C-alpha cells in the first residue's frame, strides 16, 4: 500500500513527459519482464489457465481501462487527492458489487467500516462543491471511473485466482494488457521513450517494478487469500502515503477537510478487519 501511495505522485510526474498510453505500454512490458521468470519456477495447471482465459482477457481489458483513467486523472487533477479518492471508493464499490452480484451477507463491522469510508470519500471529493462540468474538468471523473473498473477487476481476480496462482495470473494479465495497448494504440511503441531524463526513469521504475510488479501482485495475492471485500479494504491505507508523497514530491498541501477524510479512511480499515 505504501508503494501504491507513492505511485500516484509518480504518475503525475510521468504524465508531464508522455501520453498515458505510451506510459501504460512500457509500464506493462517492464512489469511483465520482471515477473516472467516465475513462469518457470511456480507450478500451475495449464488446463485451468486455458479454461480461465476468457475471464483473463476481460480482466486485461479492464486493467487497461483502469490504468488509462489513472494516468489521465493525474494529468488533470491532483495526485494526492486522486490517490485518496480512488482507494477510498474501491472497497465501497467492491462491497456493493459483492452484495448485488453474489447476494453476499456482510458482517456488521464491515458495514460500519464501509459507511465510515463513504463519509471519508464524500469529504475528500467535496461533492457539495461540484457541478457536472467541474467534476469532469477537475479530473475527478477519471478517478471515479478508475475506482469502478478496479473494483470489477478485484472481483474477477478473486474468481480467477481460485483456479491459478495469483503470481501466474499477474504475469498473464500484464502481458495480455501489453499486447492490447500495442494493437489498440500502435503509437504507444515510442522509442523516444528511452531518451527521457534520469528523473523520469526513477519515477518510471518506481511505478512499474515497485508499485505494479510488486505492489499490485501483493494485492492480487491478498485478494486470493482474503477475498475481494477484505483485500480491497486495505486500500483505505493508501491515502496516508498518497498524501504524504504528494507533499514531498509535488508540494500539494492538503487542507483540513482532506486530512480529516484521510484519518477517517484509515479508521475504516481497522473496523472492517476487526474480528467479530
Description:
By secondary structure, this protein is mainly alpha-helical. The protein has one domain. Helix content is 77%, strand content 0%. The protein contains 12 helices and no strands. It has helices spanning 2-14, 20-35, 46-76, 79-102, 108-125, 132-137, 140-160, 166-184, 198-226, 228-233, 238-250, 256-272. Helix 3 packs across helix 8 (166-184) and helix 4 (79-102) crosses helix 7. The longest helix is centred in the N-terminal third of the chain and has 31 residues, at 46-76. It is globular, with a radius of gyration of 18 Å.
Topology, pairings included?
Elements: H1 2-14, H2 20-35, H3 46-76, H4 79-102, H5 108-125, H6 132-137, H7 140-160, H8 166-184, H9 198-226, H10 228-233, H11 238-250, H12 256-272
The gist of it:
It is built from twelve helices and no strands. It is mainly α and 276 residues long.
- Beta content: under 5%
Mean pLDDT: 81
Structural class: mainly alpha
The main β sheet shows up as:
none
Number of strands: 0
Quote the distance from N terminus to C terminus: 25 Å
Apparent shape: globular
What does the radius of gyration come to? 18 Å
The helix-strand sequence is HHHHHHHHHHHH
Low-confidence stretches: none
Helix percentage range: over 70%
What brief labels describe this structure?
276 residues; mainly alpha; 12 helices
Amino acid at each position: 500500500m505504501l508503494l501504491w501511495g507513492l505511485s500516484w505522485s509518480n504518475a503525475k510526474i510521468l504524465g508531464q513527459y508522455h501520453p498515458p498510453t505510451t506510459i501504460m505500454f512500457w509500464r506493462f512490458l517492464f512489469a511483465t519482464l520482471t515477473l516472467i521468470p516465475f513462469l518457470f519456477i511456480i507450478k500451475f495447471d495449464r488446463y485451468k489457465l486455458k479454461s480461465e482465459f476468457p475471464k483473463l482477457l476481460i480482466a486485461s481489458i479492464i486493467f487497461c481501462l483502469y490504468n488509462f483513467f489513472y494516468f489521465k486523472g493525474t494529468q488533470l487533477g491532483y495526485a494526492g487527492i486522486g490517490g485518496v479518492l480512488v482507494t477510498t471508493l474501491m472497497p465501497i464499490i467492491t462491497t456493493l458489487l459483492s452484495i448485488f452480484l453474489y447476494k453476499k451477507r456482510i458482517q456488521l463491522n464491515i458495514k460500519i467500516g464501509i459507511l465510515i469510508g463513504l463519509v471519508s470519500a464524500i469529504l475528500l471529493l467535496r461533492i457539495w462543491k461540484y457541478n457536472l462540468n467541474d467534476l469532469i474538468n477537475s479530473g475527478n471523473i477519471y478517478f471515479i471511473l478508475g475506482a469502478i473498473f478496479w473494483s470489477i477487476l478485484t472481483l474477477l481476480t478473486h474468481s480467477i485466482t481460485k483456479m491459478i496462482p495469483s503470481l501466474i495470473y499477474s504475469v498473464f494479465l500484464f502481458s495480455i494488457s501489453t499486447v492490447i495497448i500495442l494493437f489498440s494504440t500502435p503509437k504507444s511503441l515510442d522509442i523516444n521513450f528511452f531518451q527521457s531524463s534520469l528523473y523520469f526513469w526513477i519515477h518510471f521504475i518506481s511505478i512499474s517494478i515497485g508499485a505494479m510488479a510488486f505492489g499490485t501482485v501483493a494485492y492480487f495475492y491478498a485478494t486470493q487469500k482474503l477475498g475481494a471485500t477484505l483485500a480491497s479494504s486495505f486500500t483505505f491505507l493508501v491515502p496516508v502515503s498518497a498524501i504524504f508523497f504528494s507533499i514531498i514530491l509535488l508540494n500539494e498541501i492538503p487542507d483540513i477537510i482532506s486530512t480529516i477524510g484521510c484519518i477517517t479512511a484509515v479508521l475504516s480499515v481497522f473496523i472492517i478487519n476487526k474480528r467479530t
